[in-house]
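P.,

For your records, the input lines for the assembly:
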Amino acid sequence: MINFQYLRTTAVKTALNLIVKDPKAVFIAGGTNLIDLMKRGVATPEKLIDINHLPLKDIELVNNVLQVGALTSNTALAEHITVKQQFPLLMLALQSGASAQLRNVATVGGNMMQRTRCGYFYDITMPCNKREPGSGCGAINGYNRMHAIFGTSESCIAVHPSDMCVALVALGAQVVILGHKGERKINFSDFHRLPGTTPETDNNLRKGELITKIQIPINGFNQNYHYLKVRDRSSYAFALVSVAAALIIKNGLISDARLAMGGVAHKPWRLTSSEDFLKGKAGTTANFEAAAQLAMKDAKSFGENDFKLKLAPNAIVEALTIAKSKS
Amino acid sequence: MDEIDSHAQGDTRRDFLKKTSLFTALSLTPVTILKAADQKVDERFAELFEKIPLNFTVNNKAYQLNVEPRVTLLDLLREELHLTGTKKGCDHGQCGACTVHVDGKRVNSCLSLAVMNEGRNITTIEGLAKGDELHPMQRAFIKHDGFQCGYCTPGQIMSAVACIREGHANSKEEIREYMSGNICRCGAYPHIVEAIQEVKEKGGTI
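Structure tokens returned:
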């Protein structure tokens, strides 16, 4: 690992002051992704600003909205009583990610900021437009079994690897961001972005800004839900495809639905057309299959990941079926 | 600036900076640093290649060290404190051989910078036994033959102790899930699960 300058502060304002002045400075929270990237030479910050001591670890329920500090560990969030009772979908997603050791350290904000696990991004001898803009994409005609089938571009077919983010996008969370010009709030579904011609930019956080918290409104999706993660081994692996599904069923009909997928796009992929289709319909296999087909409308595969075109709709139907059966 | 200058009398600027641990970033971001100093926030600054102070506890022993920012907790334990029980497997957070407890929580020490552990209490495999008396989990691993080559074992045992303390050892399935961050290429998993189950079923504080 190349050496770097290390700074630590307990004040949010100081952290913002430090980062805004230095283009080669980055925040470090849990560090479980960043330190790995630095060891491999993928990330080469000249300055790390340790934000672990900022007062951003509280979880509190205010007016039926759960406010989660960005430095909350993945473990603490999964085990919080309100998350267990109101957002069990999020709990399942968190528990399916990484390992117990990593979840103890990894933070909510860091989970959102983690980089793709594309092998070409991690190997500095390979072309990768995300790591080195203009160098090309090794994955499009290379090893792309883990890669995206939605929202890809000629520049990049990488996926965002998070499970937590898939549940949060399904639950309609919001992200609170602090910068020098003050606070702004964006929908979780607008936080991450598609690669387009600038895959080096993973999300819409601007230079000099800090994620301070996420907000999750209590919404009743705590009865019929499931997080299905399909992977190469039964635990501790990134998703080939994952599905967050939640239904509200009244009088035998679906009154509201939430669906999102992981492992298929450069961002957590919410399936709004499938959600809309399901509203007002019965939770039958035929309806679930039709919703899954709608979700696949613009899917495109790249060879090794052709199987996702079949796996993804199957996973949607399976997740919906399990969610429905919980009533 | 006046206050800092008056403190610095008789010292070189560098000596002064080292003493105060408000290191060299002064010249880079003077306004910020002065503001930070006024607010008395905890600031530590280190120039490239410069060691910075680290005070923490390992296995109930207090250490006052100076380390380079890039040194991981794993490398510090092994190379400087000579606690080589904690193993370097993959060095990328994928195998769990480097698992230690930080303030009672299991973490991968390969993915933690040593300087990020200021003020923390670290427990390694060397800190588990009480003198010559092995920890119950160590005894259970021996009894159930929970290893072959033994390289992953310190990490497995540290993770296993945490698994029970966290309350995630209530069935074989739950143990497998919550031990999935520790890879054993010899394939001793069934025996590891048996060892953890036995310690869990015996109850008591571990």
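Two observations worth noting. The two ends of chain B are 53 Å apart (CA to CA). Residues 74 and 110 of chain B are 5 Å apart (CA to CA).

Regards
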